[in-house]
Amino acid sequence: MIIDLRSDTVTKPSPGMLDAMMRANVGDDVYKEDETINALESKVADMFGKSHAMFFPTGTMANQTALKLHTNPGDQVICDKYAHIYNYEGGGASFNSGISCNLLDGSRGMFTAQQVIEAINPPEFYHSPLTTLVEIENTTNKGGGACWDFQEVLKVKQVCKDHNLGFHLDGARLWNALVEKKETTQQYGDAFDTISVCLSKGLGCPIGSVLVGDEQIMKKALRIRKILGGGMRQGGFLAAAGLYALDNNIERLLEDHKKARELGDALLKSSFVKKVEPVETNIVIFELNEKYSENQFIELFSAKNIKLIGMGSNKLRLVTHLDYFDNQHDRVLEIINNL
Ligand SMILES: *Cc1c(COP(=O)(O)O)cnc(C)c1O
């Protein structure tokens, strides 16, 4: 039995999800004739109270499309130094949109409205890149699954409004934040111009993300997705997985969070850990003390058939998900307690 805690992307479609996929009615989505993709897009748009939603093969493509929608070449986006769009999208911000990132020194991937104010280049000062967009992530990936304080989100939104800046949310794991903080999609839809959400992380789909926004901003999205190579044909088989996941796999994320907290508590009591980042959702980041090096620890766990990933600087990451079962959890806790 391999226990894979590297990421919540390692899940495989459940029998129920596969069944929904096999039964999907499909068509050519480039002609907008895939009724299952159309149903998924209108469902997600409704959830967020936006007029438009678009299905994407990946979260990266959804975010990159959003960056392109909000900016012109030469512009600058304000985001955290941990941001996925800066660290993990292959340099796409510069490659696809010709923009630079103004990186804020936040805490666990989150920053304040005041920091945003200070980072905006004055529009009349033509020597600096023109600031046109603010991007945040919820939950934060590199920040260890931390959740934004919604009041601070609203303050950042106000700053964007005052300075005529776009506001994009990378909500790859927004579902985790919503169930944990008892917040709603509607609230987030009201706060942001565009939001990308992922179906293939905690929700357990094999593929898929959705970008939502109102008509004005989403007008060009179809063309940009096409340019990026994301115009799909009978993608409804994949969208069916998304519809199934939205109906069945959101509330259960709380179980992943509970397991993550239990792992965090066990690690805190162990003899080999120096520090555990606060566990808010399904990600546990911990730092080793001098007992083991990062590589030694990964090998030690791998010998026990447990996979996890190293993050450098003696930090390691565990991510709980819907294919991490109770019996696997008991085994991992037992190993941590006895190491
Ligand atoms: C996973 C993730 C994405 C999208 O990644 P893909 O692998 O392209 O689907 C975007 N943002 C964050 C914060 C993520 O964790």
From TrEMBL:
CDD domains reported in the protein's UniProt record: TA_like (cd06502)
One Gene Ontology CC term in the entry: cytosol
InterPro entries: ArAA_b-elim_lyase/Thr_aldolase, Low_specificity_L-TA-like, PyrdxlP-dep_Trfase, PyrdxlP-dep_Trfase_major, PyrdxlP-dep_Trfase_small
Pfam families membership: Beta_elim_lyase (PF01212)
Keyword set, alphabetical order: Lyase, Pyridoxal phosphate
Domain of life: Bacteria
An example molecular function term from Gene Ontology annotations: L-allo-threonine aldolase activity
N6-(pyridoxal phosphate)lysine found at: K201
Cofactor(s) annotated in UniProt: pyridoxal 5'-phosphate
Domain Aromatic amino acid beta-eliminating lyase/threonine aldolase: 4-289
GO biological process: glycine biosynthetic process; L-threonine catabolic process
Listed PANTHER family: L-THREONINE ALDOLASE, L-THREONINE ALDOLASE-RELATED
Similarity section: Belongs to the threonine aldolase family.
Protein name: L-threonine aldolase
